[in-house]
Specification:
Layout: E1 5-8, E2 11-14, E3 16-20, E4 28-37, E5 60-62, H1 74-78, E6 92-97, H2 99-104, E7 107-113, H3 128-136, E8 143-147, H4 152-156, H5 168-183, E9 189-199, H6 201-211, E10 221-225, H7 238-247, H8 262-274, H9 277-290, H10 309-314, E11 322-328, H11 347-362, H12 366-378, H13 386-404, E12 410-415, H14 417-421, H15 465-484, E13 505-508, E14 518-520, H16 525-533, H17 552-564, H18 574-619, H19 622-659
Parallel strand pairs: 2-5, 7-8, 7-9, 9-10, 10-11, 11-12, 12-13
Antiparallel strand pairs: 1-2, 3-4, 4-6, 6-8, 13-14
Length: about 650
């Protein structure tokens, strides 16, 4: 039996032997090291700063149990009804290996980035036995590493001004990968065979990692499962961070959201570093529930996140790596409420409203986008797919196109679409997570994380015999990709590489003999075509007063809440979900009014140019004067309207600030 002690660059560690015994296909043995610090703990003056190298220790450090999760809501993080330990001293990783790898020193490596909306969950959420069974064991011989990174304001917070340390959670992940490259040979892994894998928010972070100019050459492959690729902004999270700073007494409320001077910035961060971590977390949870503010995606910082993902993908300026990417058919279905029979009379107006919000916040020609969006999603009852098309399917194709344009291999999959949309003969025996994914709407299967139960085991329920068989086959697809760069389930059923022309993808479902449908073409062809051709995006970043980025969930939640007269917006109370609805509706009116003025000004300008020669000769410029009067009157009316609505909106938003005291 292999020794459970191992020496790494900063000291000696002692792990455990662990057997995975749950599978009917046999027990699997592993050697595990849990809770290894990969950087210096981000405590005190290191809070909100980029991670520093780990501190060495004397003696033997015991690494036999998971360590605390990063600062987050423990109930959401542990999903066990009672919670678990949380701490700022959370930057640990876990290694799962076996005797074969420890002896050969050549095993492939998979690093798992957990999901949780960048606000909760932890590497401790993964059941060690499932990771061992699906990847370390069954002669798959993969060294698995799972890692924590800072969450919420601790990992993605920013204030409106310059500060050296931004998006520190992304740097946490980069340091974890560097640790793996430096140390993994001690655990039997090959540093030149590293796959970075993530699901949901973990997949979005995986994409951010491989899109970064700072990470070139650190990994060789990526697995991107159900990634909600966000619309990034330079301002993301600064309003939420500002409100937290105000609540804990580190920033005066009268400051609002103005850009801070360097001196104000340092003073505010110094104050925040002096506060207990729990106080800051409590303030963050309060803001998420009892205000119109949100925390979300990383921001474009010019360092790790060098540019908007749209620009990076379009310019093919990413660092290409072999990629396995895929989605489930139902994902989150935030717009499913549009198909409810009770909303049938309002449906057209609701779709129009959603399309106008997207158009006026994200597109250069908003009225054109809004019309095309409304027409497309009202046709053939596509409305329930609107949010998933925008957030998941079009983005998966865009990413696959970007990576496949280089000399790399891209494989795309779709989990069980025909069973849901076309009622084909394939039907898998899903009995796992069940109602764990039906917290708000009654979503159809397969939902956002349902396939994950067969891979990493998250939110897993009791299995039937067929579920164990599916787990063996489906996890084998991912293990095969990690080991060989080819996810083909068998020689008889090869998985073809994706091309932008045919958009090949592997359809995953299981008949009674566990046979899968296999290769198909034209992945979500109509939706991908719509979102790729609907018009140029705008990156001017004009947001509603409480927002600093666009996220489809933060648009749909308030609309659905207002419609249902109860909160449908994640953690927010109905009071603030509804307040967000009215705020965004007022903001949309402002944007439409501003756009009308712009168009009228443009039309008058063109008419003035066209008429200048003829009118000047005929009446000494009288025509031009009339046009100028009309233009001046129109412009003045538009300015007065915008000023009036802005004042009203500012008053309403200010009232929201006062409620947060």
């Amino acid at each position: 039996m292999a020794n459970c002690k191992e020496t790494i660059s900063v000291g000696e560690i002692e792990g455990n032997h662990l057997n995975a015994t749950y599978s009917p296909f046999g027990n699997q043995s592993a050697i595990v090291f849990l809770g290894i610090p990969y950087v210096e703990p981000p405590l005190g003056y290191l809070r909100f700063k980029k991670p520093r190298p780990p501190i060495s220790w004397d003696g033997v450090r015991e690494t036999k149990e998971y360590k605390a999760a990063c600062m987050s809501d423990p109930l959401r993080t542990y999903k066990n009804g009672v919670g678990g330990p949380i701490s700022e001293d959370c930057l640990h990783l876990n290694v799962f290996t076996n005797r074969y790898c420890m002896e050969k020193k050549t095993c492939s490596v998979m690093i798992i980035i957990h999901g949780g909306g960048l606000l909760f969950e932890s590497a401790a959420a993964f059941n060690p036995e499932i990771l061992i069974n699906n990847f370390v064991g069954q002669s798959r011989n993969i060294v698995v590493v799972s890692t924590n990174y800072r969450l919420g304001i601790f990992g993605f917070g920013q204030l409106n001004g310059e500060e050296e340390h931004q998006n520190v959670a992304l740097f946490d992940i980069m340091e974890a990968v560097k640790w793996v490259r430096r140390e993994i040979k001690n655990f039997g892994g090959d540093k030149d065979r590293i796959t970075l894998a993530g699901h949901s928010a973990g997949a979005a972070l995986t994409v951010a990692f491989t899109n970064s100019p700072l990470t070139k050459g650190l990994i060789h492959q990526q697995i991107v499962m159900s990634a909600p690729i966000p619309n990034l902004s330079k301002q993301s999270n600064f309003k939420g961070t500002t409100r937290v700073a105000q609540i804990v007494g580190c920033l005066e409320e009268v400051v609002g959201f103005k850009e801070l001077s360097r001196r104000e910035m340092r003073r505010t961060y110094s104050c925040l570093r002096s506060k207990p971590a729990q106080s800051i977390l409590d303030a963050q949870l309060y803001v998420l529930k009892n205000s119109t503010y949100y925390f979300g995606a990383p921001h474009v910082d010019g360092q790790f996140v060098a540019d908007y993902a749209d620009h990076l993908f379009a310019a093919k300026s990413i660092y290409p790596v072999n990629t396995l990417i895929g989605t489930t058919t139902a994902e989150l279905r935030k717009t499913q409420f549009l198909t409810d029979p009770k909303n049938s009379e309002k449906k057209s107006d609701l779709v129009k409203n959603i399309c106008e919000h997207i158009g006026y916040e994200l597109y250069k020609i908003p009225e054109q986008f809004s019309k095309q969006c409304h027409n497309y999603y009202m046709a053939q009852d596509h409305s329930q797919y609107l949010s998933d098309d925008m957030e998941f399917y079009s983005q998966a194709a865009l990413m696959a196109d970007a990576h496949s344009s280089h000399n790399t291999k891209v494989f795309l999959y779709s989990w069980n679409p025909e069973n849901l949309k076309q009622k084909c003969s394939y039907s898998y025996a899903y009995t796992g997570a069940g109602t764990a994914y039906r917290k708000i709407f009654n979503e159809p299967s397969p939902h956002h994380s349902e396939d994950l139960i067969y891979v990493f085991g998250t939110s897993r329920g009791p299995f039937t015999p067929k579920d164990y068989e599916i787990e063996k086959v489906y996890s084998g697809v991912f293990a095969s990709f990690v080991n060989s760069g080819d996810p083909s389930p068998s020689e008889e059923q090869p998985w073809l590489q994706y091309t932008s022309e045919k958009k090949e993808h592997f359809l995953i479902d299981f008949d009674e003999k566990l046979k899968m449908p296999g290769m198909r073409e034209n992945y979500y062809a109509d939706s991908v075509q719509f979102w790729s051709s609907v018009g140029p995006k705008s990156f001017e970043e004009h947001w509603s007063p409480s927002l600093d980025t666009f996220h489809i969930t933060n648009l749909i939640g308030p609309i659905a809440s207002h419609l249902e007269n109860r909160s449908m917006d994640f953690d927010k109370t109905f009071e603030f979900a509804d307040a967000m609805y009215y705020e965004r509706e007022q903001f949309l009116k402002e944007m439409k009014s501003k756009r009308r003025v712009e168009l009228e000004y443009g039309d008058l300008k063109e008419k003035r140019i066209d008429l200048r020669a003829g009118e000047t000769k005929s009446n000494g410029g009288g025509g031009i004067n009339i046009l100028l009067v009309i233009f001046a009157g129109t412009l003045l009316a538009g300015i007065l309207y915008i000023a009036f609505t802005h004042c009203c909106l500012h008053y309403k938003t200010r009232k929201g600030y006062q409620l947060l005291k």
